[in-house]
Amino acid sequence: SSALPVINSEDMCPVCKTIRYLNKDMEFLINPECYHSMCVNCVNRLFNDGPNQCPYAGCHKTLRRKGFRSAFFGDLAVEREVDIRRRVAAVFNQSEDDFETLRDYNNYLQMVEDLTFDLVSGTDARRRAAEATLQQWEAEHRADIERNRKAGREADEQTRRRLAAEREAARQRRVEALREAEEEKRERARSREAELDSLAQGGDGGGPGAQRVQLKRRGQAAANRAVEAAVNAAVGAADVGRLSIRGLKEKKKAPAPEGPYDPFGGMDFVPSRYKLRAGLTHPGVEKYKADPAHITGGYSFDEYAARAMYEAFAGLGVFIEDEKEVGIGLSAGEVATISAGIAAVGDRMELD
Amino acid sequence: MATEDARYRQSSQYQLWSFSPSQLAAMREKTNAAARARIAERLASQPASSRNTSAPTSSANTPDPDGASTPALPEFLTPAEEALLVTFYVSELLRAGDHAEMTDEIKATAAAFFRRFYVTNSIMTYPPTEMLIVALFFACKAEGAFPSITDFGKTFGRENPEEILAGEFLLCQGLRFAIDVKHPFRALRGAVMELSTLPGIEPARLTAAEHRAREILRFSPLMTDAYFHYTPSQIMLAALSLADRGLAERLITETFHYVEPPANNSGADTPASSGPDAPAAPKRTAPRSSGGGGSGEDRAQIIGSHIRDKVLGAIEACRDMLSKELPERREHWTNRAVIKAQITPIRKKLNKCHDPERWNLVELQRARREQASRRADSEDRDPAEGRGGGKGGTLEDDAAVFGAPLPLSQASRDPKRRKVGGEAERKGLDDPFGPPL
């Protein structure tokens, strides 16, 4: 399709060539059939008496008066695309919740986008195919579409209601705050009056005591409210506590105190089969005891002896064949005899 | 339970890579069957012409020709043939290590890596000649000697370092990332240290025994499945008993010297218990039953006669296993006649039945990288962010032996991200003074 022109707010109607100078309030309308814009006067003139051909050169589409509307976007290509998307969205209105996995949802979105792309900027053949797919889908999934639409409307309603409630609550709070401020002012005025009266009647008025009382009263309303809230919370917690105490008292106990932290996690490094004596050495190691490359860093040759001894005895009592077959500490032969014994006796349970 | 045994049971060698003989045989069968199935699939899907380029050789071990006829599947290796090839290539690996003058630990680690890799992967899937070099390289790194890849390549005549690096991650995965292999070499030193403190042993005898035992340990356990079935301590004692039976027995009897007191079964220590294990090491840990230091039951369990007999039995069995591949057999594995008779036919079979996609490791790695970057392209729209080395593909395909593959991140369920309300709320949020009170 050819590039669609951009409506300039100050320009002339392409049909009657009227310029804005001549008609200050010139408005342009478009028809979604071909997205050609023309001024209102032209629309009235051409289409008031029934359907007529689009006046643009080369556009042979039959337009009707009621199809015309004002464009929202200045760029008519965008307008066209938005219309198409609106149409597609009316048909493909499933949401993420309808899908099992995110991947399925993304595949669906991809399919929809591909379809939209074909509709917006595909070749004629593709566009027709896409339209056909759209119609077909609508016909097939009418029920689903209706359901989703209803669900969407409900979701929107809920959001609107929630927002309204929040705004209402905010308004209430503001009103409350105002009222309290007024109340405090009145209280203060009244107490001042009372003080003056008491002074006039001869009492000393308490001096600093009265002032302190005065000061307290300024935030009194807020303090009262806080106290009430705390009391309510305590009562509420006590209620909750009472409920939980009935059934779940055990959870409140502190966990049993753990022992001191064991960095080795229960592993024991004391050898069972050998004893590390001081004099263990080997001729192959002796020659390094005078080598500065080894001594300078503080290498302890007892470490080597300990490692060598450990490796000599580690795993000596580990019988892989037995352990991998039946388990640690058992022997495959013994397990076989035991199970054979059980099978021979049979495990009949006699009930008298 | 002895503390050393408890500590050994924490090692990955015990937990992941120790099996009973039947379990190991079952695993090898499973690997073989899985590889056969996969390779059969791949060969069947390939066009017939590319396969017929291999000249049909006349050898006694391949009776059915698969040349110009209909796309028949080649004859696959049996698990026994695979095991024989693995042993042969381990001997080649050790020779290569000798040529590069690597230490005993590095050669042994490399051989252990090689063996472990070919338990869960079939020799038909990945080329053993390549994995051999990769194992040596990785073992160098694992044992703390970090050679430069180019120098390493030069030593073995591989000009392209890519060939070695391509198989590295594969090897790691095949090892289940259990890089620490425990060897009997230092254990031998420890045994000799202990023996040298005992009275009545001449130093010359000890040195000769150690020398011979070390010779055995460099070769025999790696050429058999000893590392899978026995702990390093048991292997060491078996080698020592092959070198000098008397010494090994002396060590065992000195260790397992505890005699249960016949009269009183209380927990009191008998003053007659000789030997270096005086009850000076009180057992403080909580899991021990019946408190107090050194109760009779515990000590009997750890160093009593019953367990001694069991240990002796295990060492005898290991000794039998090792004696099948004494160091004198090195010549056997390099003997041209033997190789021609036994190994070459299997290699010819291997040439026909190997996995075409996986045989060239460099190509494989490149293909996986491309696949990963393509997947990242389509997902993230950021082409520079690829996953390393085709991890995804490898996890899916090659970890079949370990059970269910690890879940990829795409398949996992992300917590549902909810939209922030409808339009109205969004307008509230756009308000510069924030949402209403």
Task: Give a quick rundown of the structure.
The complex is a heterodimer of chains A (352) and B (437). Chain A is mainly alpha-helical and 352 residues long.
Structure write-up:
Chain B: Keywords: Cyclin. Chain B: It comes from Thermothielavioides terrestris (strain ATCC 38088 / NRRL 8126) (Thielavia terrestris). Chain B: One of its GO terms (molecular function) is cyclin-dependent protein serine/threonine kinase regulator activity. The complex is a heterodimer of chains A (352) and B (437). Chain A is mainly alpha-helical and 352 residues long. Chain A is built from 12 helices and 4 strands, in the order E-E-H-E-E-H-H-H-H-H-H-H-H-H-H-H. A two-stranded antiparallel sheet of chain A has the order 1-2. A two-stranded antiparallel ribbon of chain A has the order 3-4. The radius of gyration of chain A is 45 Å and the shape is extended. By secondary structure, chain B is mainly alpha-helical. Chain B is built from 22 helices and no strands. In chain B, helix 5 runs antiparallel to helix 6, helix 5 packs across helix 7 and helix 6 packs across helix 7. In chain B, 34% of the residues are buried. About 17% of the residues of chain B have low confidence. The interface between A and B is large, with 56 and 71 residues.
